[in-house]
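## tool: complex_structure
## caller: assistant
## args:
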Amino acid sequence: MTLPPLVQAFVLHFGEMGSRWGINRTVGQIYAVLFASDRPLCADDLVERLGVSRSNVSMGLKELQAWNLVRLKHVPGDRRDFFTTPEDVWAIVRTLVEERKKREIDPTLTMLRELLMQAPASDEERHAQARMRDMHELIELLTGWYADMQRLETERLVQLLTLGTKVVKVLEMKDRLFVMPGGRAKKTETRTAKPEA
Amino acid sequence: MTLPPLVQAFVLHFGEMGSRWGINRTVGQIYAVLFASDRPLCADDLVERLGVSRSNVSMGLKELQAWNLVRLKHVPGDRRDFFTTPEDVWAIVRTLVEERKKREIDPTLTMLRELLMQAPASDEERHAQARMRDMHELIELLTGWYADMQRLETERLVQLLTLGTKVVKVLEMKDRLFVMPGGRAKKTETRTAKPEA
DNA sequence: CTTTATTTTCAGTTTTGACTGAAAATTCGG
DNA sequence: CCGAATTTTCAGTCAAAACTGAAAATAAAG
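## result:
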């Protein structure tokens, strides 16, 4: 592995964490190298820096492209494909969350919806279905909220995150000062907060 | 596998998704059975329901305990260990997020902090460090916000999630009406919102 | 259309992780 | 303590995934 020590430490960490993140070591390392690099790299650059086979790099890049985590750049007068990660780390997080949701949550939502349609044939199934309903509601709430957040510009999102729980204070303030202005009624409407707590 | 069809479908799905979630098939299936069950189950119940070896169940339960995802229950007059998942699905999500953060994010934060302390030895390392700084800041912001959320009671948390982006509207309203009351100043203080959009 | 640079695919190999049965350890009732 | 019930550990086996080198496919240049 031919990398400056600092970068190498970063890359090795991403490789090790890869397994916990559901990607393999090489994919994690490729991503780390691209992320830390100050210029686009081609497949052979990665082979040299990581010391893995050319075909392994090819597969890794393909996987990262499937995740939308790398961008293809073309250097004029060079036939090779060069790759980068987006400059904006927020864009990266958005993609990451989006893709993980698609792979790790959406299929479960679909499955739950299907099973909740079926008529339970016993008390055991009735109870199981009640549990699934709880799970389904929770995931729907979370993904709905996520869809809202995904729509925000980064600046507003950062503002919201920075506020943290202070938002709750603001909500309490709002509740104390105003009656809910009649927005389009949703199933789960905001309950008026108790004055203190 | 001896399970009612509806439960079986649920369990098989969890088994298949297991690999995407970073747990193995059996662990996913054990969790699903416990989650859907209307009573605590012992290891042998799981062996019967899932048709896997006793030792596999033992290891699976150990892993779920390490994740704090199952609770040990003792039935009076029975020496065996019985297991359940928490009734409250929100409690489950809290644990899940907490544990995933501990395993998948905290180690990276630590690594980044260490590498950011080192003096860069080249322009390449300087650039890599700048990228790491971006990543570090972003993760700090997200985990800080998460810590805030984790502290909220479930009711307030649900309220917040239900509001979604409507919170932004409330913030804009607040910004228009008041000057920030002088809270303890944090590095990233809320910027006053532009009047519209 | 041919040549050459580059990327992709794939069969075979290696590595890693899951699973099992048997043996060891633990725990509780007597 | 002893012995039965139960759980855990672990060495060996099996299955899945990662990785490689070589061959095939692709794409641009001449």
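## assistant note: Residues 123-151 of chain A form the longest helix (29 residues). The beta strands of chain A are 41-42, 71-73, 82-84. Handing back to user.
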